[in-house]
Specification:
Helix content is 49%, strand content 0%. With 85 residues, the protein is mainly alpha-helical. The model has no long low-confidence stretch (mean pLDDT 92).
């Protein structure tokens, strides 16, 4: 799970925080409230998740709660990776 969180964090830093290198990005940083990502950013992130992890996120899973912070995104990815999903 740590590797997943690190990969998501690296992508967010590279794609959405290029002009803000000093801004803190923790696993619980509210990405939407801090305006790090927006609705378009979520769709870019969905493409990255598909490419990086080979996971298709269902439309009903594209909610603000699932993309609020790195912890929520990581939980979503890991839940889709598990055999029970």
């Amino acid at each position: 799970m740590e590797n997943t969180a690190a990969a998501v964090k690296a992508f967010i830093r590279q794609e959405f925080m290029e002009g803000r290198p000093d801004q803190a990005l923790e696993d619980d940083t509210d990405l939407l409230e801090r305006e790090i990502i927006d609705s378009l950013g979520i769709f870019l992130l969905l493409g990255h998740i598909k490419e990086e992890f080979g996971i298709e996120i269902e439309p009903e899973d594209v909610t603000l709660d699932n993309f609020k912070d790195i912890s929520a995104i990581t939980t979503l990815i890991e839940s889709r990776r598990s055999p029970a999903a």
